[in-house]
Design a protein that fits this description.
Elements: E1 3-8, E2 14-18, H1 21-29, E3 34-37, H2 50-56, H3 58-68, E4 72-78, H4 85-91, E5 96-97, E6 102-109, E7 111-117, E8 120-126, E9 130-134, E10 139-143, E11 150-156, E12 165-166
The chain binds fe (ii) ion.
The site of fe (ii) ion has 7 residues, from strand 10.
């Protein structure tokens, strides 16, 4: 189930846990984060190609491409047998920013985003059917878990924009990882 947990950033104290999708969307909207549910226009399987995946969500993808002037999109997937899963997970576990929007739509599986806004941290467990956007220059981190399993559509304005710039703050260590969330 998609879940939002809101914490105090300095103490890690949990303030609120929400599973209602509309409530999650409205809490996140207040900090400039977009959270939506998308429906596939046609059924997909585990073996669907990148083009088939994008075609199934074409109307939603096109709407965002137009609204934010995204230049490209692709489909990325990770599975628990991936040989580099430890290194890939580690790459996004510390607080960082990007100069580009980070937009992910979960075609399959799940992933855990944390967004650090002012004195609060928003932990968002995204599930199949969830779209999340992390605004540019917003402090965040992402945990795919020890055994990552997801397929996501990503949208980009520039290929260079989506490079992690670490803040050097170890704040992420105060919050639950994927397995504990
Ligand atoms: Fe990121």
């Amino acid at each position: 189930m998609s879940t939002l947990k809101i914490y105090r950033d300095n103490s890690g104290e949990a303030l609120e846990a929400v599973t209602n999708h509309d409530t999650i969307a409205s809490r996140l909207h207040s900090i400039g984060v977009r959270f939506e549910r998308w429906q596939a226009a046609q059924p997909l399987t585990k073996d669907s190609t990148q083009d088939e995946v994008i075609a199934a969500y074409k109307s939603s993808v096109d709407r965002l491409m137009k609204e934010y002037d995204f230049k490209s999109c692709d489909v990325v997937s990770l599975h628990p047998q991936h040989p580099d899963k430890v290194a890939l997970r580690k790459k996004f576990l510390d607080e960082h920013i990007h100069t580009d929007f980070e937009v992910r739509f979960f075609v399959e599986g799940k992933g855990l985003f944390f967004i650090h806004d002012q004195d609060k941290v928003y932990g968002i467990l995204c599930e199949q059917g969830d779209l999340i956007s992390v605004p540019a220059n917003t402090k965040h981190w992402f945990d795919m878990g020890e055994n990552p399993a997801f397929k996501c559509i990503r949208l980009f304005t520039t290929p260079e924009g989506w490079v992690a710039q670490y803040t050097g703050d170890k704040v992420a260590d105060k919050f639950p990882r994927f397995e504990q969330f």
